[in-house]
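Good morning C.,

I know you're traveling, so I'll keep this short. The sequence:
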Amino acid sequence: MNYFSRCCKSSRLLEPKFMVVCSMLFFVVGCQNNTVKYDMNEQQKIYINETTKNYGGLIEIYKQRLKREDTEDTRHKLARAYYLSNDFNAVKRVLEPIIKNTKNDGILILYGHVESRLGHNDTALEYLNRAIEIDSKNGEAYNVKGIVLLKKRQYDAARFAFHEARENFYDENKVTNNLAMLSILNKEYSEAYKQLNILYTKGYRDQTILHNLLFTLVKLDKLQLAKSFCIAHKLSNEPDILIQELRRIEPINAIKFNEIKPSQSDNQKQYTIEKAAEQLASNTKTDITIKDKNATKSIKTAKSVTPTKSVTPTKSSINAKLSNMSKLDEKDSSTTTNLVTNVPSVSAKQTKQTTQTKQTKQTTQTKQTKQTTSAQSTILAVRSGEHAKFSRITFETENKLSKKNYSVEKISPTEFKLSFYDVSLPAEGINSIIKRISGSDRDFATITGTLTAEKTLILQIKTKQKSTVKDFYVGSNSKGKAHCFAFDFYLEKK
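The C-alpha cells, ready to paste straight into the viewer:
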C-alpha cells in the first residue's frame, strides 16, 4: 500500500491535523485567486484612466496602493500622475521621502521637471546631473537639462545638451523643435523656420510646433502668410490681434517648451485619433487656393471634420486648440504667398480661379518638379588637408552653394555640426566622405555622418582642441566644372 492510499483512508481524513492542513491550503488558494482578481481589476482601471487622461482617477488608485504597500515604484507613479495634473507641490511631497537616496534616474528627471516648473533651475540641474550620472545614455535627461539651460540663457550649453539627447535617441522631433526654440531665442528666425518646417512637412501638427512656427513667421515679417496660417488652423477668431501681440512679445515669453515625454498610451491615443481623422477626411476634401506673383495653384487638403474651438488672444494667453492642415507650401522664404482657405460661401471669382487652376495643374506640377531638381546640390568630391594655421575641408559641388544650402553649428568648443540640405552624394557614398576627412588627423579627432530621409547630409566633427570655423566660397576647380566651398578649422587663441 503506497503513502497516498494510507493517507486517504476515511479514518485518516477525519484526523484533526489532516483537516487543519487542508483548511490552510484552501484558504491560501482562495486568497491568491482574490489577489489576482483584485490586481486585474486595478490594472484595468489604470488602463482606462490613462487612456482617457483621467489623472484624478489615477491619483486615487495609486494613493490606495501606497496605503497598502509603500514602494518607490508606487510613489513614482503617483508623483507622475500629480505632475500631469499640474500639482507640482504634491509631486515634491510624494517624492521627498525617497529623493535623497533613490537610484532611479526616472524619478530624478521627474523631480528636475518639477523644480524647473517652480522656477528653481539650479536645483533642477542638480537632480538632472544625478540622473545622467546614473545613466549617461538617458536622452530624456539631456533634453530636460537643455530646456533648463535655455531658461538660464546658457545657450551654448543648451545646444550641447540637445545634441546629446539626439545622440542618445531621444524623440527626434522634440529635439528638433527645441533646437528651433534655441534659434528663436537667439533671434535666428530663418534658421528656426527651416527646422520647424522640417517637422511641419513630415505631418506633425503638435500644438508646440505650430505655435513656434506661427511666431517665427511673424518675426520674419511674413504677416500675410502668418494670418493665412492662423485662419487655416483656426488659432484665433481675431488673427490680426494675435499677430500684433506676437510682433511685440519677446521670444523668451512666447516660445513653448517640450518639457515632458508622453506615455505610450498617450501616443497610441493620438495615433488612433489621427488615423480616424484621416479616414473621415478622405471622403471630404476641399480645395485651398494658393496665389502668388507667378502662378495660381490649387492644393487638395483634408478638411478637419471635428470643429476646433477658437480662442481670442490676450497678452497673458495666446495658445489655442489646433486642427490638422496640409503641408505649408512656401516657394521661397523671401516671397510672400497669399493663402486663401475656402469658406461655406464661395464667390464666383474664387470659383473661376479654381477652374483655371485645375486646367493648369499638370503644367504647374511639371514646373515644381523642375525647380526641385535644379535646387538639389550634387556633391562631386570632398577633400581635406592641413595648413600651417588651420585644417581645411573642401566640398566640390555641381551647383554653387548658398547660405540656404548649408549650416554650421558649434555644439561645444570642440564639436561642430555641418549640415547640407537636399544633396546627392558621390557614388562611393557617405563612407568615402568620412574617410577623406579622417585622413587629416592633426586637428580632427572623430568624424561621423548620416544622410537623412530628407536628403540632408549631417557631419559631426570633433576637434582635438578648441577651434573656430570659417566658411567661404573658393571658386571653380581647376577644370572649371565644379564649385569649391571651404571650411577652415582654426585653433582658438588662448
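Safe travels,
E.
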